[in-house]
Design brief:
This is Peptidase C1A papain C-terminal domain-containing protein. Belongs to the peptidase C1 family. InterPro entries: Papain-like_cys_pep_sf, Pept_asp_AS, Pept_cys_AS, Pept_his_AS, Peptidase_C1A, Peptidase_C1A_C, Peptidase_C1A_papain-like, Prot_inhib_I29. Keywords: Disulfide bond, Hydrolase, Protease, Signal, Thiol protease, Zymogen. The chain is an alpha+beta fold. The chain has two domains: about 70 residues; about 260 residues, Cathepsin B, Chain A (Alpha-Beta Complex), CATH 3.90.70. The chain contains seven helices and eleven strands. The chain starts with a helix and ends with a strand.
Length: about 325
Amino acid sequence: MKFYLAFLLVILAVAVADKDDDFLWKSFKLEHGKNHSPEKELSRKQNFLKQQRKIEKHNRENNGWKMAHSRFSDMTDQEKSVVRGARMMKRKPQDNENAANFPDDVPRNIDYRANKCLQPIRDQGHCGSCWAFSAITALEFSKCKKTGVAVALSEQMLIDCDNSNSGCGGGDYTRAWQYAYDKGGAMTLASYPYVSGAINHTSVSCKFNSAAVAVNVSTYDWTYPYPNATVTMTYLQSFGPLPTTIKVLDSLFNYASGVYSDPACIVADENDVDHAVVIVGYGTTAATATAPATPYWIVRNTWGTGWGLSGYFFIRRGVNMCNIESWTAYVRVV
């Protein structure tokens, strides 16, 4: 009798769990506008439920940061790899000419998110164009900082025209700056809108128009020495937001809040990176009874405002988490 009752309870628990899973799946599809074909519905649901179990386990065991579903939750690993578009060249030695211009100390925190020179978060969509967005963000801020007038520039110009990079196949923001320098500048976003994020987009020829150029590159370089959090902080104060490159683990796709940290993302090889982002600030969490104060970077991503903290995320500072402190660079405009 006891065995029979236990068996019934197990059956009931499974039925309730299945019902809950169905509700979560339907809610996810509605929230993210997912409409799969009958052939793909089952595999997409399985991907989603796999992420659901990971999220539940992580949030039970980790107090430092939390996970939640994002538009990536039902995607395959191959589909998620598309938005990792950093293909970095090896750095050349530099003479650290700007060190003498650095302030003697740095503020306790910096946050450029509300600065008028930082354009709204954009979405690279189904394209490995993070390198172009990182390059453009720094150019926009640098020009606005110099003139006092906000400007929106074109990533699509770099994707279509810069043959030193590979468009949606990936690239390097410093090569993008070199292209803009050689070409005579970067065009406005209004004159050359972004279209590469669409799944059905096909490549088009370069439509560069010098009459629509709004920014000219003067100089650019890597921060030095690296990796060094304090040095990065001084460059951030002097130049504004700094493009950099990170190693993206699967856990980051479902980042929701807190200071991201993953032991698997302490990467021994500094060349093991695949996604370009922009550091726009830093700070330190307040210590609590259960957790010490944690220094962090504020990072701008290009996965849309529906991801993370309205498009941003915090990541642990001072330990070169995911190689974030190895690839910071700055640019000056004419």
